[in-house]
């Protein structure tokens, strides 16, 4: 599934040669997509397609959308998919491109392939169990066993997954508890420089129960201190997926959007308008549900042992 | 002022008044948090390396750098005298020049990077030719190039040369590595 290796051996006949050399990797990637679809089909999910160009992007403090002729390229299919849930579709998934402006690095490319799915009646713990079954099934189909190798470590995907609360991880690796006194700048910096690099790299690790201010679109649990029912999955140190018990409270959602827009304006970023169609759907009633967003290029990296996202994308910008 | 999103490999920045070169650069963005830019930076004065992580909105000082073409004139005490294009005299210390001082020749054009008026990077022509003023004779008939012996070139700089190089020969030296490249003239 990694194309870069083929590129080096493709010889001198330019792009056509390079692309011909990618055939085996392309077939493996197609196999990955077939395995993903087979998994969701077997679980009674409906594959859907929602617009790639949207009037307003999902409001997130640190995700910037690419403008596209008076509209925007989607940063995620979340809001449209929730409108389908609100209309009664209980199990849906989508595979397609998403776009995030300025995100370019070893694990980031401004355009990337997203897998996103939602299930009514489920919470984030159910979603974690389902993600484990999905990854084991895809690895079995792609590699013959539910095991991936990263940086020399064999990682069993169907074994025990380490589930670590954000509080435990930060106390251990950064020396403070962000659920008690949240400091956004310190949280982001410590997450990138202390927590993520310190997570066990020889097995899947789910960081769960985020501080309420880092809830994004997750439901918060009213305990003390309150935590968001959200997890991020790391496999071999690679961040692979994000999930929520979805926020269904329209008033709370409207408040979070307004807060986020204010905060974006304060940071000098474009304050996107709230998606009113989505908020109306929430007001009509979104069932309790869980949703997972999983980076398919990152999954291809895991299955192929690629170190950078550029290696698994056929064309890069 | 730079913001973190301007950072890239090869950019020169200033931290606490000291100029640094970004030698490694990595964009990371955990979860839905803000982007963090992990950098390795080389101190352009001491040569040491440090690591720094910047967040998107962090500001990083831009060093005041000036690159000037100078022409070498002559040594004077513990410094070396150069001329700029207006024939203004510029003195550079032996310490700032380092090993480069051995390769200077009259009228040689060099590029000097100044940070707040202080020379921090001196670029000579990549190759200079120097006459060997002392070396022991090699064993007769030995033309192997992988066996080396010490030699002193004019100006007093010591290099390793192949056995076939004799006193009085002119050799080419790579100023970036300070090493022998080839022999350009026999005595």
Write the layout of secondary structure elements.
The complex is a heterodimer of chains A (317) and B (187).
Chain A (H helix, E strand, L loop, with lengths): L3 H6 L4 H8 L1 H20 L3 E2 L5 E2 L12 E2 L2 E3 L4 H9 L4 E9 L11 E10 L3 H20 L3 E4 L2 E4 L5 E4 H8 L10 H15 L6 E7 L8 E2 L5 E9 L2 E8 L4 H17 L9 H10 L3 E7 H9 L13
Parallel strand pairs in A: 1-5, 9-10
Antiparallel strand pairs in A: 2-4, 3-4, 5-6, 6-14, 7-8, 10-12, 11-12, 12-13, 13-14
Chain B lengths: L1 E2 L8 E4 L2 E11 L7 E8 L5 E7 L3 E2 L4 E12 L2 E5 L5 E5 H4 L11 E7 L2 E6 L3 E9 L12 E6 L4 E5 L7 E5 L4 E7 L2
Antiparallel strand pairs in B: 1-6, 2-3, 3-4, 4-5, 7-8, 7-10, 8-9, 10-11, 12-13, 12-15, 13-14, 15-16
Summarize it.
The complex is a heterodimer of chains A (317) and B (187). By secondary structure, chain A is of the alpha+beta class. Chain A has ten helices and 14 strands.
Question: What labels describe this entry?
Answer:
heterodimer, A: 317 residues, alpha+beta, BirA Bifunctional Protein, domain 2, 3-stranded antiparallel sheet, 10 helices, globular, B: 187 residues, mainly beta, 5-stranded antiparallel sheet, 1 helix
């Amino acid at each position: 599934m990694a194309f870069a290796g083929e590129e080096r051996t493709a010889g001198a006949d330019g792009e056509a040669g390079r692309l011909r050399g990618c055939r085996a990797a392309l077939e493996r990637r197609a196999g990955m997509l077939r395995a993903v679809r087979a998994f969701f089909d077997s679980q009674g999910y409906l594959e859907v397609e929602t617009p790639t160009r949207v009037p307003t992007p999902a409001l997130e403090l640190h995700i910037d959308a690419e403008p596209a002729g008076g509209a925007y390229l989607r940063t995620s299919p979340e809001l449209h998919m929730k409108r389908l849930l609100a209309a009664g579709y209980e199990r849906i998934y989508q595979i397609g491109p998403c776009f995030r402006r300025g995100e370019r690095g070893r694990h980031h490319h401004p355009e990337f392939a997203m897998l996103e799915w939602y299930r009514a009646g489920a919470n984030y713990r159910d979603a974690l169990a389902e993600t484990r079954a999905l990854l084991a099934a895809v690895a079995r189909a792609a590699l013959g066993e539910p095991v991936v190798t990263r940086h020399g470590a064999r990682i069993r995907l169907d074994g025990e997954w380490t589930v670590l609360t954000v509080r435990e991880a930060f106390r251990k690796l950064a020396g403070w508890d962000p659920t008690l006194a949240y400091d956004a700048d310190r949280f982001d910096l410590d997450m990138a420089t202390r927590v993520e690099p310190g997570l066990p790299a020889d097995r899947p690790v789910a960081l769960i129960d985020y501080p309420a201010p880092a809830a994004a679109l997750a439901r918060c649990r009213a305990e003390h201190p309150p935590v968001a029912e959200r997890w991020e999955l790391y496999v071999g140190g690679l961040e692979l997926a994000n999930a929520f018990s979805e926020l269904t409270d329209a008033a709370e959602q409207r408040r979070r959007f307004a807060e986020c827009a204010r905060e974006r304006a304060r940071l000098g970023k474009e304050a996107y308008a709230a998606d009113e169609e989505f908020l109306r759907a929430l007001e009509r009633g979104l069932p309790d549900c869980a949703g997972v967003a999983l980076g398919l290029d990152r999954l291809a990296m895991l299955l192929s042992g690629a170190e950078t996202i550029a290696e698994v994308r056929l064309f890069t910008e | 002022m730079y913001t973190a999103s301007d950072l890239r490999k090869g950019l020169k920045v200033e931290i606490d008044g000291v100029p640094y070169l970004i030698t490694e650069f990595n964009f990371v963005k955990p979860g839905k948090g803000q982007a963090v830019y992990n950098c390795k930076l080389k101190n352009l004065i001491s040569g040491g390396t440090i690591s720094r992580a910047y967040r998107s909105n962090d500001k990083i000082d831009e060093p005041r750098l000036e690159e000037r073409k100078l022409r070498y004139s002559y040594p004077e005490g513990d410094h070396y005298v150069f001329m700029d294009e207006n024939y203004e005299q510029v003195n550079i210390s032996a310490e700032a020049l380092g090993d480069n001082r051995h390769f200077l020749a009259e009228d040689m054009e060099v590029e000097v990077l100044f940070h707040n008026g202080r020379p921090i990077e001196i670029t000579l022509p990549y190759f200079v030719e120097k006459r060997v003023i002392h070396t022991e004779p090699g064993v007769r008939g030995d033309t192997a190039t992988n066996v080396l012996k010490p030699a002193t070139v004019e100006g007093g700089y010591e290099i390793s040369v192949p056995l076939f190089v004799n006193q009085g020969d002119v050799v080419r030296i790579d100023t970036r590595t300070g090493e022998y490249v080839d022999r350009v003239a026999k005595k």
